């Protein structure tokens, strides 16, 4: 859930470090953000917010694509060698309305 939108910050998406760790996201990593409420899709990069606050804040121009309370899906992508794909399992992180980890993620397709 989006908790803030700061049009006057240069860019990025600010994410609670606990959520970054759960999703294996790294500072400055490129992500795609999908706004479930309005269908907007955009790319930006991750910066850490305050630990334990559940922060998901869109910064810069992206702040025009969501408002606090909107539900977003944050997607990261990676490239793998063919040999690595066999052992790869996607990571899904699910949160409640306050962006607290719920641990109720369904199994990944094919796992």
Q: Can you describe what's shown?
A:
This protein is mainly beta and 111 residues long. Helix content is 10%, strand content 25%. It has a single domain, classed as Barwin-like endoglucanases (Beta Barrel). The protein is built from two helices and six strands, in the order E-E-H-E-E-E-E-H. A hairpin with a 5-residue loop joins strand 3 and strand 4 (41-48).
* H/E element sequence: EEHEEEEH
Instruction: Outline the biggest β-sheet.
Output: 6 strands, mixed
- First CA to last CA: what distance? 27 Å
Radius of gyration: 14 Å
CATH topology: Barwin-like endoglucanases
CATH architecture descriptor: Beta Barrel
Map the helices and strands.
Layout: E1 4-6, E2 13-15, H1 17-23, E3 30-35, E4 41-48, E5 56-59, E6 72-75, H2 82-85
Parallel strand pairs: 1-5, 2-4
Antiparallel strand pairs: 2-5, 3-4, 3-6
């Amino acid at each position: 859930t989006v908790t803030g939108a700061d049009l006057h910050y240069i860019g990025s998406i600010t994410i609670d470090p606990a959520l970054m760790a759960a999703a294996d996201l790294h500072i400055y990593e490129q992500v795609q953000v999908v706004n479930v409420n309005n269908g907007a899709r955009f790319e930006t990069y991750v910066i850490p917010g305050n630990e334990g606050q559940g922060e998901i804040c869109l910064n810069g121009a992206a702040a025009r694509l969501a408002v606090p309370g909107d539900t977003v899906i944050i997607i990261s992508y990676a490239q793998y060698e063919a040999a690595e794909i066999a052992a790869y399992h996607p990571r899904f992180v699910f949160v409640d309305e306050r962006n607290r980890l719920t641990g109720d993620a369904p199994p990944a397709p094919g796992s």
